[in-house]
């Protein structure tokens, strides 16, 4: 017996069983208990397992206006009873906003972001509009959101997923948006900008924000200012080629996590991230590429009054011809800790700095590649790392000349003199930008030292040290509230 013949026989048997399970009027289906006994189910009960917008008359051919049918499906399915509303493969034309009422515990799903498209045919109009307050515990996945014509930056209501109607104090929480694409609109996922609500417990993942978007991919700036804990955006691609504002904007947050994000393009003076007044921001495995600073410079990731920890971030292929540019830029009381950073540019003028902030407690593993990039963060007044692991771990050596020198906190740990002195010289230790454990070692090792002294001056506590004339020697200082001599001697 051939496999094909067996398969056709199995299909016939299954069809017969399904046909016999339907009651005479077609209203009931027969199910089966584990013990084998049958149980009747109405067709209405069966449809609740998965409701399609096509069950309410949506066509999905890109021609028929599906607004009323989809709104009817939303009104009947998203009732807070754990229902799932499915958009089969197709292009769904709408001409007005789709209002999401106060509800909870539901899911809206498409076949995939390539197969299921919702197209808004009325300019300056949202697609999904969450209205009321308290909608929670839901998810949206597998859809493409677009407009039939590309919206301009003036069309500020052209938001794919909009929260709130301008009423102060509204809150939307514990939700997920994943595997979606956003194109041709103003903002993608955004709280109402006038009297915006707070949104928290958010997980946005595996989404694409196309280069035809004119505004933010994610906008959460509540008014009045209230806490927005636990916002996580990860594994997304954000293209800022046409954006007139930062792609991610968040304020008054508690715990914000940005993980595995790829930022493409963008043009000065518009940055890529703007986060303000947030207790804890974690930036992990994020990459920026092909941002154009023009001739003026820019700040790409901007933080104000935040505590930021950046892990394994990179900025690559920065374009432009001048100005001062910062990748990680923290001001107004921002604390920035850096664990791994790659800085590379394609500039023809100006300078790219990897990071700067009011306070930098710790820095480690900064790799500078580009010809106009720098790991020097001192252009911002008062900014210096309390502990620069790279400078501590790498015993960099500076060769001194026959001249006096004043060291700074950015000077290398080992200062080496291997030439003869023609006059008494001094090496002055730094007195600003110091951190506990900072070290300097001054070594005099020359075939002919010269008949003059080399004195190391401590401007903090006057703990000076002098190497005698015509003699080689060394001294090692460590800072702990004051410069202390840890070792010294002749060579």
How many strands?
41
Work out the helicity level.
under 10%
Task: State mean pLDDT (0 to 100 scale).
Answer: 88
Q: What share of the residues does DSSP label as strand, in percent?
A: 35-45%
Protein name: Glycosyl hydrolase family 28-related protein
Pfam family, one: Pect-lyase_RHGA_epim
Domain Rhamnogalacturonase A/B/Epimerase-like pectate lyase: 51-117
InterPro entries: Pectin_lyas_fold, Pectin_lyase_fold/virulence, RHGA/B-epi-like_pectate_lyase
What does this structure look like?
The protein is built from 4 helices and 41 strands. The relative contact order is 0.05. The longest helix has 19 residues, at 3-21. Strand 38 (454-457) and strand 39 form a beta hairpin. It is mostly beta strands and 491 residues long. Mean pLDDT is 88; it is low at 1-33. The chain has a 30-stranded parallel sheet that branches. The chain has a 5-stranded mixed sheet with strand order 33-35-37-40-41, with no helix packed on it. It is 8% helix and 43% strand. Keywords: Hydrolase. GO terms for molecular function: hydrolase activity. InterPro entries: Pectin_lyas_fold (IPR012334), Pectin_lyase_fold/virulence (IPR011050), RHGA/B-epi-like_pectate_lyase (IPR024535).
């Amino acid at each position: 017996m051939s496999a094909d013949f067996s398969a056709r026989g199995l299909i016939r048997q299954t069809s017969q069983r399904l046909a016999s399970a339907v009651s005479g009027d077609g209203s009931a289906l027969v199910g089966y208990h584990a013990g084998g006994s049958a149980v009747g189910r109405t067709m209405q009960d069966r449809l609740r397992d998965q409701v399609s917008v096509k069950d309410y008359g949506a066509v999905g051919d890109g021609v028929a206006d599906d607004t009323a049918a989809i709104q009817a499906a939303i009104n009947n399915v998203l009732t807070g009873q754990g229902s799932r509303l499915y958009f089969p493969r197709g292009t769904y034309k709408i001409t007005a906003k789709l209002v999401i009422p106060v509800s909870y515990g539901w899911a809206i799903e498409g076949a995939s972001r390539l197969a299921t498209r919702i197209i808004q045919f009325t300019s300056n109009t949202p697609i999904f509009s969450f209205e009321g307050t308290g909608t929670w515990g839901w998810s949206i996945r597998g859809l493409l959101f677009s407009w039939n014509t590309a919206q301009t930056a003036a069309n500020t209501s052209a938001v794919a997923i909009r929260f709130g109607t301008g009423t102060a104090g509204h809150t939307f929480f514990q939700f997920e948006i994943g595997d979606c694409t956003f194109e041709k609109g103003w903002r993608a996922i955004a709280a109402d900008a006038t009297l915006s609500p707070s949104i928290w417990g958010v997980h946005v993942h595996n989404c694409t924000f196309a280069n035809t978007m004119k505004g933010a991919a994610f906008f959460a700036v509540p008014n009045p200012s209230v806490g927005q804990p636990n916002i996580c955006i990860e594994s997304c691609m954000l293209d800022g080629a046409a954006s007139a504002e930062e792609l991610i904007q968040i304020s008054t947050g508690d715990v914000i996590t940005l993980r595995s994000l790829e930022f493409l393009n963008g043009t000065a003076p518009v940055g890529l991230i703007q986060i303000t007044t947030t207790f804890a921001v974690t930036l992990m495995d994020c990459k920026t590429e092909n941002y154009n600073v023009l001739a003026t410079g820019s700040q790409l990731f901007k933080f104000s009054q935040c505590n930021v920890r950046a892990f394994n971030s990179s900025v690559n292929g920065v374009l432009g011809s001048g100005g001062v540019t910062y990748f990680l830029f923290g001001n107004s009381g921002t604390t920035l800790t850096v664990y791994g950073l790659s800085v590379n540019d394609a500039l023809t003028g100006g300078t790219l700095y990897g990071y700067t902030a009011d306070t930098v407690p710790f820095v480690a593993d900064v790799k500078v590649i580009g010809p106009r990039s720098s790991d020097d963060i001192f252009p911002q007044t008062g900014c210096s790392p309390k502990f620069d692991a790279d400078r501590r771990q790498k015993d960099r050596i500076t060769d001194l000349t026959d001249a006096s020198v004043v060291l700074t906190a950015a000077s290398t740990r080992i200062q080496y003199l291997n030439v003869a002195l023609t006059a008494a010289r001094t090496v002055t230790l730094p007195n600003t930008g110091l951190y506990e454990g900072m070290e300097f070692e001054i070594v005099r090792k020359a075939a002919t030292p010269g008949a003059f002294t080399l004195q190391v001056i401590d401007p903090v506590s006057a703990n000076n040290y002098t190497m005698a004339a015509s003699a080689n020697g060394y001294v090692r200082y460590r800072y702990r509230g004051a410069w202390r001599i840890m070792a010294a001697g002749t060579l």
